[in-house]
Backbone:
């Protein structure tokens, strides 16, 4: 299937022949559906914290920040904004010169509310000789959109989301990147005033991010009295996956093998390269203006406090489990913690005792740990929290995408439909073991949780392979705790008109 010149491409990308064979095999076999025991709900896999607990977890987190631990914010920011403007591109390329759809009408009716309005108006004057109101009065709607999206204007259609102006303030406009700097300062600043933030970006946009950072960093450091340590990485070429044709052979374009980015699951490699004790993960577009930040900040600290609380308990138990002569009574206490607090269930647990039980508990506790914020299901797309059966027969909390659930199975479909919460990608992760050594996160990935999608290239259909999602299969073998967080903490911007929602005004 492979040709002599293919080897050079594989070598350049750092992809082995074995990886290619494995990926092509998945095109043939597909990926198995995950076995669901139940959807997670309050009291059954999801914690709901009361006021007293909130205060306790906030205190735990503030105390932790005074230690010498390294805290970091990890922000996936490589997404282009093109999908955000899908409707406007449709309008630009369509037959009608006037806004017709509800989406188009809303965009133009409320155009002055966008944070980028003044920039757009200036570029309309420069390129078209008219202000936005003048262009509207002469029905030159497409000229406005062209100045917004295309290279001759603001080029927003080709920029990453992280660099678009999202929010207006009295004295400034902020991009999502800047909003993440603010967030880092208020909930992830250590006792020495250090704020560590890592953005994963695409290679073509990296220099734009670096320039934007350099222009704004001194001002934000002065405002918050902190020192930012900001770094960037790109998705590794070695995580690209081979595309396949209809017969599951390698897809070629002009004789060359075609590779595609492996999806956000590839970022487990970037995450694995970072050196920190605790890492926050949050998507680039899930930000709000300052007036709305309070609840977000509170619950970020709460879920971090939950992580610290349970991680320290797990560490204490692991030290006790080193003693081969540990009592049965203590083993039972630890088993209860594992089952009741971490939601790790084993049907045969009661049959285990002595050293066998000790080894099982060490294996389950000595893993990376994450706390995931879960919001009540309000019809937004996203993964959901479930209790699923693992390869070793144990049951644990997992975040599943709908593609991982067998909807042809009536029982599984019902569990999915009855899911009360979903995951807005709000994670706090503990990535070191009880001896302070960093886990190799790649060892905790379930490779059988990828998925195959249909794409096209040069007018020909192809099959694309997505790696296990970052917060799905890539973290499959972690300890996972779900905590209910308010819907107000979740405000993604999927389309440009989302910026008109009150949460972004």
Residues:
């Amino acid at each position: 299937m492979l040709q002599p010149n293919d080897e050079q491409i594989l070598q350049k990308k750092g992809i082995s022949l074995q990886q290619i064979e494995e990926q092509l095999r998945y095109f043939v076999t597909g990926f198995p559906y995950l076995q669901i025991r139940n959807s997670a709900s309050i009291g059954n896999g999801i914690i709901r914290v009361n006021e007293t607990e909130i205060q306790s977890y906030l205190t735990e987190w503030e105390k932790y920040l005074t230690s010498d631990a390294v805290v970091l914010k990890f922000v996936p920011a490589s997404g282009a904004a093109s999908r955000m403007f899908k409707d406007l591109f449709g309008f630009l390329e369509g037959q009608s010169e006037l806004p017709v759809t509800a989406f188009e009408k809303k965009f133009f009716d409320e155009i002055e509310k966008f944070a980028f309005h003044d920039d757009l108006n200036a570029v309309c004057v420069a390129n078209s000789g008219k202000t936005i109101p003048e262009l509207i009065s002469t029905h030159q709607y497409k000229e406005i959109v062209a100045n917004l999206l295309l290279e001759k204007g603001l080029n927003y259609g080709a920029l990453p989301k992280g660099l678009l102006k999202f929010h207006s303030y009295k004295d400034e406009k902020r991009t999502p990147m800047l909003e993440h700097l603010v967030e880092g300062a208020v909930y992830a600043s250590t006792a020495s005033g250090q704020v560590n933030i890592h953005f994963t970006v695409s290679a073509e946009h990296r220099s734009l991010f670096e320039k934007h950072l350099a222009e704004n960093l001194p001002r934000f450091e002065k405002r918050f009295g902190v020192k930012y340590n900001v770094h960037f990485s790109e998705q590794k070429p070695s995580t690209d996956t081979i595309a396949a044709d209809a017969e599951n052979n390698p897809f070629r374009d002009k004789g060359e093998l075609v590779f595609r980015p492996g999806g956000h699951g590839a970022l487990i490699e970037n995450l694995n390269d970072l050196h920190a004790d605790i890492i926050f993960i949050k998507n680039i577009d899930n930000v709000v203006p300052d007036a709305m930040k309070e609840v977000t900040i509170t619950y970020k600290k709460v879920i971090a406090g939950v992580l610290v609380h349970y991680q320290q308990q797990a560490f204490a138990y692991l030290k006790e489990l080193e003693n081969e002569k540990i009592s049965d009574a203590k083993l039972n206490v630890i088993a209860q913690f594992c089952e009741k607090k971490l939601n790790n269930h084993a049907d045969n647990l009661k049959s285990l005792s002595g050293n066998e039980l000790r080894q099982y508990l060490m294996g389950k506790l000595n893993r990376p740990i994450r706390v995931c914020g879960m919001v009540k299901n309000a019809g937004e797309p996203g993964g959901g929290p479930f209790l699923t059966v693992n390869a070793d027969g144990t049951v644990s909390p997992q975040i599943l995408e709908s593609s991982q659930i067998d909807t042809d199975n009536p029982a599984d479909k019902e569990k999915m439909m009855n899911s009360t919460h979903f995951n807005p990608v709000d994670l706090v992760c503990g990535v070191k073991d009880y001896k302070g050594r960093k886990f190799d996160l790649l060892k905790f990935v379930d490779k059988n949780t990828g998925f195959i999608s249909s794409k096209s290239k040069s007018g020909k259909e192809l099959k694309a392979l997505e790696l296990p999602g970052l917060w799905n299969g890539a973290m499959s073998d972690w300890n996972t705790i779900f905590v209910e967080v308010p819907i107000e903490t979740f405000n993604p911007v999927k389309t440009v008109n989302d910026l008109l929602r009150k949460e972004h005004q």
About this structure: The chain has two domains: 6-80+168-490+497-504, 82-158. The chain has a mean pLDDT of 93. DSSP finds 15 helices and 21 strands in the chain. The longest strand covers residues 369-376.
